[in-house]
Amino acid sequence: MNQSLYFECKTFLHGLLIVDDKRSMAHGLEQRLPFLDNDLVDFAMRIPVKYKLRNITEIVKLDENIPGPKTSQYFNKTNDGKIILRKMVEKYVPQNYAKGIKQGFSAPDASWFRQESVDFIKNTLISRKARLYDFIQPAKVSEMLDEHFSGKKNRRLLIWSLLSFENWLQLFG
């Protein structure tokens, strides 16, 4: 678990911080992130997992295609996470904050990929100029896009991946 958290810090966190910095600076806000103090992060990485999660043996499966934050899905199923932090802050803040569900920023990509951006997606991914068809069967992509646009399945992650792959191929392929 701690190795997974370390991996997240070294990969995913960087992207979140860049987005957060741009968003706050676009509104003239100087933002402070006290939980990212180097000494505090080093300390947190050394804390045994049993003080972070109650039940580390149970595997909780989450559907990545369900829109919205995965943290609340996990927390609603387990009521778990950040045990030592919650225990510490309950002395200083109201209970609804100490026991509350983490609220992060999650883009509304499921609706973006069904409404105003449908034409962009189709023009990019179903185009004869699309480079991704050197690697992927066009009929399969079309089938999965149809499933998404009709509401049968949420293929938001696949669409994001295909758009990113196509963009990369256009730039570097």
N-to-C SSE series? HHHHHHHHHH
Total separate domains? 2
Describe the sheet with the most strands: none
Instruction: Classify the oligomer.
Output: single chain
Strand content: under 5%
**Shape, per Cα inertia axes:** elongated
Low-confidence stretches: none
Question: What features would you describe in this structure?
Answer:
There is one protein chain. This protein is mainly alpha-helical and 173 residues long. It has two domains: 2-98, no CATH class; 109-172, no CATH class. The protein is built from ten helices and no strands. It has helices at residues 2-10, 12-26, 38-46, 70-78, 83-89, 95-98, 109-112, 118-125, 138-150, 156-172. The longest helix has 17 residues, at 156-172. It starts with a helix and ends with a helix.
What characteristics describe this protein?
single chain, 173 residues, mainly alpha, 2 domains, 55% helix
Provide a concise account of the structure shown.
By secondary structure, this protein is an all-alpha fold. The chain has helices spanning 2-10, 12-26, 38-46, 70-78, 83-89, 95-98, 109-112, 118-125, 138-150, 156-172.
Topology:
Blueprint: H1 2-10, H2 12-26, H3 38-46, H4 70-78, H5 83-89, H6 95-98, H7 109-112, H8 118-125, H9 138-150, H10 156-172
